[in-house]
Write a structure and sequence with these properties.
About 25% of the residues lie in helices and about 35% in strands. It is an alpha+beta fold.
Length: about 425
Amino acid sequence: MKYCSKCGNQMNDDVQFCPGCGTPVAGAKPAAPQAAAKPAKSGKGKGKLIGIGIAAILVIVVVVAIAGKLGAKKLDMKDYVTVNFNGFNSVGTASYDFDRVGLHLDAVNLTSPTSSEIDILNNLLNDISIRLSVNEDLSNGDQVEVTISHNADRLKKIGLKLTNTEFKVKVKDLEKLTKIDAFEEVELQTNGIAPRMNVYVDNVNISGLSLYYTVEPGSGLDIGDKVTVTVGNDEKSLLRQGYQLEATSKEFTIEKGDRYVTTPDDMTKEGLEAMKSQTEDSIDAYFAQNSSYISASDVKYLGTIVQMPKDSNGWYSNNTVYVIYTATVASVTGDFTAQTVYLPKSFSNVIIYEDGIQDYGNVNNGFHGSTTDMTFSWYSNVAGYNDLTKMFTELVRSNKDTYEFTMSSEIEKIYQ
């Protein structure tokens, strides 16, 4: 007994062709020659020749048919390549497993290569590469195309063909995303004082997920202003963790906080009364100190002026409130006739706290201005203004490039 050098098939010693693959057998003994036939004396010899020719043709046909059947052996790549899907719907990922060892073993068993062919086969199988058309941001129901690259011509020469080298796989079994409201527990935090308040949001922990936020705008804000709060976490990263935000940003209104008084109407009744009382005490003290020379009567509250700096980074105060009184001032020594004098007293950094309590801030010790032609005691002039135009020029008009002004209705009526 001997074996085919091509396919390794066992065969009898006297065969000339391998019955498994049809390969000629080296060293096979030719069939014993038959005795020469005697010349035919009739037409029967022609018939025998024709029969031999037909038999030879049939042998050839059978060999060809066997060779066709024994052509390249097929291996289905779907048996060796598995596509896996992981993660969450809409951001799923795809990967593949390739049973390269199993493919090698099946290819060897199927083709029975010679020692020289097995090295070629191993190299060809090792050169196989696999590509997925898409491997991320997948949703259930998507299609992933698998493409397997290999040297088909060379594999065919050693009797092997790979099938299903291109096929599609439907995405399935991706987990459902959990939707969360990222703003359910958000509260605006403030520091500073309106209308120059800073706003921020503390980190929030939802379902074990830590979220952080940005606020725009985040500074120079007043109560009633609107800001946009945006989740700062990377949205794709959250999806890959299984969380889908119902919204990534939301508008909020600043509803509370400490604030500077910006207009006369901002002041609380209690706060204004405290500032008026402080001003009246200063008036009493001023005229008591100078009672040998001047006196005041008919002292009345007139109104307020509030100034706010246009530039929040300036060196000047954040606000100034002028509380203005009028009084009839006379000279005890007869140095001038009695006149109406306007007495503005200033309070800076006047704040109303979040709880509604007003702080009248820093108080100027004296009064603004100096009267004209109301001199007493060694050329001292009565404090305040006896000229409305001069008062408004010094307090308001000369400072309009730096400040914005609002006046109570009583002051508006006499503004010149």
